[in-house]
Structures are given as C-alpha cells and as structure tokens.
C-alpha cells in the first residue's frame, strides 16, 4: 500500500475563543500579558495578532481519501487507519454533557494542592511558560472548587468518531490543558531573564484570575490554510452552522 502523507495545512480544527469569541476579561488579561512581554523584551517579542489567538480544543486534522477522511493523529500516533465521522462528531459536540465547560486562567497559588499536575508541573508554574520560542497561557477546567479532567474527557470521547487528540500518544495519556499562544520570542534570550519574566507573569495571573466557559458561543470549527490560522484565509463555522459537507470541503484532497 502506498504510504499516505497527511499535510499540516490546509486542515481543520475545533477551537475556542477565536476572533471575537473572547470575553472582555480574557481579552484584557491577554493584552496585559502581551504588554508585559513587550515592555520587558521590546522588539524581541512579537505579539500574536489578537483575533487569531485561540485555544485548540481538538485538532480534527485529516485527508480526504476514496474511503473517507483519514485521521492524521490515529495514523501518526497509533499507526491506525481511522476515518472521521464528521456528522457524528458535530452532533456529539452539540449535545456533550461536558459543555458548558468553565476554564480558569490564573488564580493558582504555588503552595496550594489543586489535586492535579500538568506535565508533572504545578498549575502555577504551567499557567504561563515560554515553550521554546512560544509564549503560552494555560488554564484548566474548574467546577465549583474542583478541577476535573473535563477537557481531557471531551477529547477522549471524540475517538469513537475517528478523531484522536494530538497529545493522546498512548491510551493512558492525559491532556487537560486549555492553552493559548500569545506571542513569539524572536531572539535568543538569556535563560535567567526568561525565567524572571515567567515568574512575573505567573504572579500577575495568580492575582488576576479569569474564568470563561467553553460552550456553543465560544466554539468554532476552523478550516485553516496556515499555522497559526490567519483570519483572512481561514474558513469559520460556528457550532450552529457546522455541517458535514461544509467541513468536508476544507480537508486536503488525496
């Protein structure tokens, strides 16, 4: 059998908070983080254009074949040929009992046990990081005073529809992170300065928590041509407007 290669772009993803789907509080927090980074790094920091900042909820990447839309991550992570049931997945998202899903950004005290770690790190430390050259803001599902694995569960429950979450490398992998790329570091910065800036922004987040729900109003399907998705070249469908035929047309042909 000829090996099928699934291109990175164009492709499809389910996201939250894209374009104008950010609450005023979340928008203010993101701008404060970008401003702090710009103040500390000058032109060595490039803020992500505000409309394209988003949280990837579930990458639905694949490629059209004669049989159906072959899922990229089942193929690459598990070496399985699984085909995406777009109609079933859209219906699942609309009726999922995990939605609305409140997400808390910030408000994490370093000495407090929240009952979870993210990649073996305390949520205070993970709430803001420079990962390689990318500045990343991360939050987690919160219900009342608990922090359940609601987002990981949502991602896992997409598997029967032929969609594997990118970071579910193995059946027991967990990814409950709701993360957003807020900008890029353009130069080699000394480690000590990066660590100091990270600590400053984490403290800002600790004192200025924001909660926003992932729900029908904040979710959108994107048919993107580039990464990160550029608003001028990205097709968008709200949850109410998403159909199998519409999303299918966004996938790269074989």
3D structure, described in words:
The chain contains seven helices and twelve strands. The chain is of the alpha+beta class and 254 residues long. It has a single domain, classed as Cyclic Phosphodiesterase, Chain: A (Alpha-Beta Complex), CATH 3.90.1140. A hairpin with a 4-residue loop joins strand 4 and strand 5. The longest helix is centred in the first third of the chain and has 18 residues. It is globular and about 55 Å long. It starts with 10 loop residues before the first strand and ends in a 6-residue tail after the last helix.
Strand and helix order: EHEEEEHHEHEEHEHEEEH
Using the CA coordinates, give the radius of gyration.
Answer: 18 Å
Which stretches are poorly predicted, pLDDT < 50 over at least 5 residues?
Answer: none
Number of domains: 1
| CATH level 1 class label | Alpha Beta
Helical amount: 25-40%
The general outline is globular
How much of the sequence is in beta strands? 15-25%
Distance between the terminal alpha carbons, to the nearest Å? 14 Å
Number of beta strands: 12
Which structural category do the helix and sheet elements fall into?
alpha+beta
User: Mean of residue pLDDT?
Assistant: 96
| Individual helix count | 7
The CATH topology is Cyclic Phosphodiesterase, Chain: A
Largest sheet: 6 strands, antiparallel
Oligomer: single chain
